[in-house]
Protein backbone atom coordinates (compact mmCIF):
# COMPACT_ATOMS: atom_id res chain seq x y z
CA UNK A 1 0.00 0.00 0.00
CA UNK A 2 1.47 3.37 -1.12
CA UNK A 3 1.34 6.39 1.22
CA UNK A 4 -0.53 9.48 0.03
CA UNK A 5 1.16 12.83 -0.63
CA UNK A 6 0.17 14.33 2.73
CA UNK A 7 1.65 11.36 4.55
CA UNK A 8 4.91 11.64 2.59
CA UNK A 9 5.06 15.36 3.31
CA UNK A 10 4.60 14.71 7.04
CA UNK A 11 7.43 12.19 6.96
CA UNK A 12 9.79 14.54 5.12
CA UNK A 13 8.96 17.75 7.00
CA UNK A 14 7.64 17.26 10.52
CA UNK A 15 5.03 19.80 11.68
CA UNK A 16 7.40 21.22 14.31
CA UNK A 17 9.80 22.17 11.49
CA UNK A 18 7.05 24.09 9.67
CA UNK A 19 6.36 26.17 12.76
CA UNK A 20 9.95 27.39 12.74
CA UNK A 21 10.06 27.96 8.97
CA UNK A 22 10.87 31.59 8.22
CA UNK A 23 10.81 33.34 4.87
CA UNK A 24 12.68 36.62 4.70
CA UNK A 25 10.81 39.47 3.03
CA UNK A 26 12.25 40.38 -0.35
CA UNK A 27 11.82 43.30 -2.70
CA UNK A 28 9.89 42.61 -5.89
CA UNK A 29 11.84 41.78 -9.03
CA UNK A 30 10.78 41.35 -12.64
CA UNK A 31 11.88 37.86 -13.69
CA UNK A 32 10.21 37.78 -17.13
CA UNK A 33 10.03 41.06 -19.06
CA UNK A 34 7.24 41.78 -21.55
CA UNK A 35 8.22 41.84 -25.23
CA UNK A 36 7.21 44.24 -27.98
CA UNK A 37 4.87 42.93 -30.65
CA UNK A 38 3.27 43.92 -33.94
CA UNK A 39 -0.11 42.28 -34.52
CA UNK A 40 -2.55 42.44 -37.45
CA UNK A 41 -5.16 45.22 -37.28
CA UNK A 42 -8.04 44.15 -35.08
CA UNK A 43 -6.05 41.36 -33.40
CA UNK A 44 -5.13 41.16 -29.75
CA UNK A 45 -1.63 41.33 -28.32
CA UNK A 46 -0.81 39.26 -25.25
CA UNK A 47 1.81 40.64 -22.89
CA UNK A 48 3.42 38.66 -20.07
CA UNK A 49 5.36 39.81 -17.02
CA UNK A 50 6.41 37.61 -14.12
CA UNK A 51 7.63 38.93 -10.82
CA UNK A 52 8.90 37.42 -7.61
CA UNK A 53 9.19 38.65 -4.06
CA UNK A 54 7.73 38.15 -0.62
CA UNK A 55 5.15 39.11 0.61
CA UNK A 56 2.89 38.28 -2.32
CA UNK A 57 3.41 40.03 -5.65
CA UNK A 58 0.80 42.28 -7.26
CA UNK A 59 0.68 43.41 -10.89
CA UNK A 60 -0.59 46.58 -12.55
CA UNK A 61 -0.29 47.14 -16.30
CA UNK A 62 0.18 50.68 -17.61
CA UNK A 63 -0.52 51.97 -21.13
CA UNK A 64 1.29 55.16 -22.10
CA UNK A 65 2.09 55.69 -18.41
CA UNK A 66 -1.52 55.37 -17.20
CA UNK A 67 -2.71 52.40 -15.10
CA UNK A 68 -5.16 50.22 -17.03
CA UNK A 69 -8.15 49.58 -14.75
CA UNK A 70 -8.57 45.88 -14.00
CA UNK A 71 -5.24 44.87 -15.60
CA UNK A 72 -3.83 43.27 -12.46
CA UNK A 73 -2.64 39.84 -13.59
CA UNK A 74 0.72 38.71 -14.97
CA UNK A 75 -0.92 38.24 -18.40
CA UNK A 76 -2.52 41.18 -20.18
CA UNK A 77 -4.43 41.14 -23.48
CA UNK A 78 -5.00 44.36 -25.41
CA UNK A 79 -6.33 45.46 -28.79
CA UNK A 80 -4.88 48.95 -28.36
CA UNK A 81 -1.49 50.07 -29.73
CA UNK A 82 0.73 51.93 -27.27
CA UNK A 83 3.65 51.82 -24.87
CA UNK A 84 3.12 49.24 -22.13
CA UNK A 85 4.90 48.30 -18.92
CA UNK A 86 3.95 46.41 -15.79
CA UNK A 87 4.35 47.53 -12.19
CA UNK A 88 5.35 44.60 -9.99
CA UNK A 89 4.86 45.37 -6.32
CA UNK A 90 4.46 43.97 -2.84
CA UNK A 91 4.10 45.53 0.61
CA UNK A 92 7.79 46.51 0.59
CA UNK A 93 8.26 48.27 -2.74
CA UNK A 94 7.50 48.30 -6.46
CA UNK A 95 9.46 48.09 -9.70
CA UNK A 96 8.54 48.70 -13.33
CA UNK A 97 9.20 46.30 -16.17
CA UNK A 98 10.75 47.59 -19.35
CA UNK A 99 8.49 49.61 -21.62
CA UNK A 100 7.46 47.79 -24.82
CA UNK A 101 5.58 48.91 -27.89
CA UNK A 102 2.44 47.21 -29.12
CA UNK A 103 1.70 48.12 -32.72
CA UNK A 104 -0.85 47.05 -35.28
CA UNK A 105 -0.24 46.68 -39.01
CA UNK A 106 -2.22 45.55 -42.00
CA UNK A 107 -1.64 41.77 -42.44
CA UNK A 108 0.27 42.27 -45.73
CA UNK A 109 2.66 44.76 -44.02
CA UNK A 110 3.55 42.20 -41.35
CA UNK A 111 4.14 39.51 -44.01
CA UNK A 112 6.36 41.80 -46.11
CA UNK A 113 8.33 42.94 -43.04
CA UNK A 114 8.91 39.30 -42.09
CA UNK A 115 9.99 38.44 -45.64
CA UNK A 116 12.38 41.42 -45.73
CA UNK A 117 14.05 40.21 -42.52
CA UNK A 118 14.87 36.83 -44.05
Descriptive account of the structure:
With 118 residues, the protein is an alpha+beta fold. It has helices at residues 5-12, 15-19, 107-117; strands spanning 26-32, 37-40, 45-48, 50-54, 58-63, 66-67, 75-78, 82-89, 94-96, 100-105. Strands 2, 5, 6, 8, 9 and 10 form a six-stranded mixed beta sheet that branches. A two-stranded antiparallel sheet has the order 1-4. A two-stranded antiparallel ribbon has the order 3-7. Strand 5 (58-63) and strand 6 (66-67) form a beta hairpin. The longest helix is centred in the C-terminal third of the chain and has 11 residues, at 107-117. The chain is elongated. The model has no long low-confidence stretch (mean pLDDT 84).
Secondary structure: elements and pairs:
Elements: H1 5-12, H2 15-19, E1 26-32, E2 37-40, E3 45-48, E4 50-54, E5 58-63, E6 66-67, E7 75-78, E8 82-89, E9 94-96, E10 100-105, H3 107-117
Parallel strand pairs: 2-10
Antiparallel strand pairs: 1-4, 3-7, 5-6, 5-8, 8-9, 8-10
Query: Distance N terminus to C terminus?
Result: 59 Å
Strand content: 35-45%
What is the helix/strand order? Answer: HHEEEEEEEEEEH
Radius of gyration: 21 Å
Mean pLDDT: 84
Annotation, overall tally of beta strands: 10
Unreliable runs? none
Helix-strand category: alpha+beta
Shape assignment:
elongated
Q: How many H/I helical runs?
A: 3
Biggest sheet descriptor: 6 strands, mixed
Helix percent reads: 10-25%
Amino acid sequence: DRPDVAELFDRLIPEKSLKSLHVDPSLPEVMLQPTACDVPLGSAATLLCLGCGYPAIRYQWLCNGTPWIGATQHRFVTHRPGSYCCRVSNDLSSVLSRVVEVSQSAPDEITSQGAAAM
